[in-house]
Amino acid sequence: MQYLRHSVGAAFGFGLFLVAGALPVSAQSIDAAVLAGACANCHGTDGRSPGVIPSIAGRPEAVLKGQLRAFKAETPPPGTTIMNRLLKGHTDEQIDALAKYYAQLKPAPAATKGKK
Amino acid sequence: MSTHSKFSRRQTLALLGGAGAGALSFSMPAIAQQQAAGRVVVVGGGFGGATAAKYLKRGNPKLQVTLVEPGKRFYTCPFTNLHFAGLRTFEQQGHGYDELRSLGVQVVHELAKDIDNKKKTVTLAGGRVLPYDKLVLSPGIDIRWGALAGYDEAASQLAPHAWQAGPQTTLLKKQLDTMPDGGLFILSAPANPFRCPPGPYERISMVGHYFKTKKPKSKILVLDAKENFSKQPLFQDGWKKFYGDMIEWVPLSKDGKVVKVDAKALEVETEFGKKHKAAVLNVVPPQKAGFIADRAGVTNESGWVPIKPQTFESTQVADIYVVGDATSAAPMPKSGFVANAQAKVAAAAILASFAGRPASAPSWLNTCYSLIAPDYGISVANVYGLEDGKLVELKGTGGVSPRQASDDFRKLEAQYGVGWYNAIAQDTWGSRPA
């Protein structure tokens, strides 16, 4: 568990270097809540995880965006296994919409205390 | 909860931007005024049904949502294989409906026995009739009794399928526990499509772990009606690494297809007449959509339910949405993850329909972890979309775990598998990790 937490921290730090400028959201085609639906299957309802998979609710938008783009670019951070495979199927517009959506959700209570 | 749904609606509006704003100019108070916004009945309280009920109610608390599910607790098939390995208790597979009740879903613990798709009613076993504006069916699978010669309901009491979690799981576990060391475990695997494509192979991995630690002289024979299977190279690498020659897998072309079962003798016969006798016989039989789908008139000659991919509404009957294993939604597998993802798309489409707007672009993922040994997990990921109105797996996406991966990577995937189970159980039933 300790290892996972550490990796996740490192992962988000790494992602910061890859933040790109926001692209315009192609409006009608994206419903962020629908797009985000499948994330909950592993990251918990509204991105608040009950287990070892990191919570994503309330993380800074730029951090989320950078992380998601790093997965898509096949430069996955250490400690991750599957997100690169999933993100290859997402457009930049979808990534931006997801980052914005999860950044504005209330974080998990445990995450705000700095522990999982 | 209302705070959340208010927020997500605002968020959606913001993202939809100028073009969508005209069609979406209603405000929250306008929504709140929509008393009796609609009646939805959901049949089946598994991954698909419970998720649909939850996301419908979250999306519009004014909807009247009724979930019909006979069991007070739902026991998931995913992770029951770990129970056979002695890594989890059966009760850890159980989930209740308290969260749905707290959201305002009416949970009715009865069997739905019939559906009138013209009058738009569901009839319960006790005789009560529930009218609906929209119906969601998530009935899972039924076994095609007799489709495999000799395999009927009575036979399953001697040679369990354990492909629906419950007494069958407990029966197979008991048989494994009482089997003498040195016995042969035979698993008969069906042709596609069936519930949980990697399931048979994870099962034999977990039985392999049990034998290795408790009954090391025992053997496993897999008789398969297919030529290949999900995550095959990864499974076979793992079997070799952990279980050596304990596991023998026989494909269709090597006479792997079981055509007859003699449950009393614990014996199976393959296509070319070869007989195999087991100490414990596990038959994963041919399957079809749960019977209530037939009653609703939504199944076709395949025994499964064709759907419109954009919304998961039946192609045959209006206002009936079908999700999960019962659907014919290839290339999506029949998995709990997919049932949950389909349910969210169907819920969004129903909410849109009640609000008089078109359904949003759907989005589906699948992620499936399998455990080969306690610290050795593998996964497959898929991303699906619509192309020319057809469901497709998006090119260049998804894939299985790398074949050359470190033990650390496999250990992480074993941990993430547990993380996935805990998250989806929370997302579907509001369960806390057990």
Provide structural commentary:
The complex is a heterodimer of chains A (116) and B (434). Chain A is mainly α. Chain A has a single domain, classed as Cytochrome Bc1 Complex, Chain D, domain 2. Chain A contains 7 helices and no strands. The longest helix of chain A is centred in the first third of the chain and has 15 residues. Chain A is globular and about 30 Å long. The N terminus and C terminus of chain A are likely disordered. Chain B is α/β, with parallel strands linked by helices. Chain B folds into 2 domains: 194 residues, FAD/NAD(P)-binding domain, CATH 3.50.50.60; 132 residues, FAD/NAD(P)-binding domain. Helix content of chain B is 32%, strand content 25%. In chain B, the strands form 8 sheets. In chain B, strands 5-2-1-9-21 form a 5-stranded parallel β-sheet, with helices on one face. Chain B has a 4-stranded parallel β-sheet with strand order 13-12-11-17. In chain B, strands 23, 24, 25 and 26 form a 4-stranded antiparallel β-sheet that branches. In chain B, helix 7 packs parallel to helix 8. The longest helix of chain B has 23 residues. The chains are: A mainly alpha (116), B alpha/beta (434).
Question: What would the keywords be for this entry?
Answer:
heterodimer; A: 116 residues; mainly alpha; Cytochrome Bc1 Complex, Chain D, domain 2; 7 helices; 49% helix; globular; disordered N terminus; disordered C terminus; B: 434 residues; alpha/beta; FAD/NAD(P)-binding domain; 2 domains; five-stranded parallel β-sheet; four-stranded parallel β-sheet; 26 strands
User: Into which percent range does the helicity of residues of chain B fall?
Assistant: 25-40%
CATH architecture label of chain A: Orthogonal Bundle
Structural class of chain B: alpha/beta
At the fold tier of CATH, the topology name of the largest domain in chain B is: FAD/NAD(P)-binding domain
State the name of the first-level CATH class of chain A: Mainly Alpha
What is the share of helical residues of chain A? 40-55%
CATH topology of chain A: Cytochrome Bc1 Complex, Chain D, domain 2
Number of alpha- plus pi-helical segments of chain A: 7
CATH uppermost class of the largest domain in chain B: Alpha Beta
